[in-house]
Hints:
Largest sheet: 7 strands, parallel
Shape: globular
Structural class: alpha/beta
Helix content: 25-40%
Mean pLDDT: 97
Distance between the termini: 17 Å
Radius of gyration: 17 Å
Strand content: 15-25%
Number of strands: 10
Bound molecules: 2-amino-2-deoxy-6-O-phosphono-alpha-D-glucopyranose
Low-confidence stretches: none
Order of helices and strands: EHEHEEHEHEEHEHEHE
Number of helices: 7
Strand order of the largest sheet: 1-10-9-6-2-3-5
Amino acid sequence: MKIICTRDEASFDSTMSEILISQITSKKDGVIGLSTGRTTGNLHKITARVFVEKGFEVGETTFFALDEVTGIDRENPWACYTKLKNEMLDALGVDDDHFLAFPTKSDDFEGECKKLTSEIEKRGGADLIILGLGENGHLGFNQPGSDFEGGACVSTMDDDLQRRIKEDCGLPESAVLGGVTLGIKDIMSAKKLILAVKGSSKAAILKKVMYGPVTNDVPASILQTHPDCTVVVDKAAAGE
Ligand code: GLP
């Protein structure tokens, strides 16, 4: 694993945006996976701003959402589909043919998982996936205990994220939210991975991810075995 340590949050966000823009412009029909959350929101917004102010070639790049919240409407601002469109993809003029995402609701998630993974394959496979890290070591919605050989699937959501979504959307405490996600195997088959980690709340888990044993108790620890994985951190996340 390579590591890029940035001095603060602002430099983390701009470094991440430079990495993304350089990937977009390096291949005109590239395939790029994106994650949503507190870590990646700014990098998407900065990328959109650079596009509007200076412009760069987006070409025929396909973007995909690594995962999706299930049980809410797709137009809900917490849906990864809507978040990614609002934060960046609409500003870049990316149409629905070039943006692959799981649905938030379906009677056949198994079929939807197959559809998304085979569409990514058809387009040549992921050149880059930008990953966020859960405080419990999750990748996408691959929670602790997930099979390293597992493909896309419906999974559970950690309590903290459920609580934030329910509070924000005014959903009852009893509501059960879940997630659908590319599997660890799909993530590991990307040519290049960037694990983006910022903030002191991630310092302890990041130490385990990078220097602890490779174990599915800490799903992101599998990244130690990827041939081209770079961890980008701010000083706070690098604390331990
Ligand atoms: C969420 C999402 C992930 C995201 C991660 C980190 O649960 N399922 O795709 O990368 O957790 O989120 P945050 O950046 O808000 O900490």
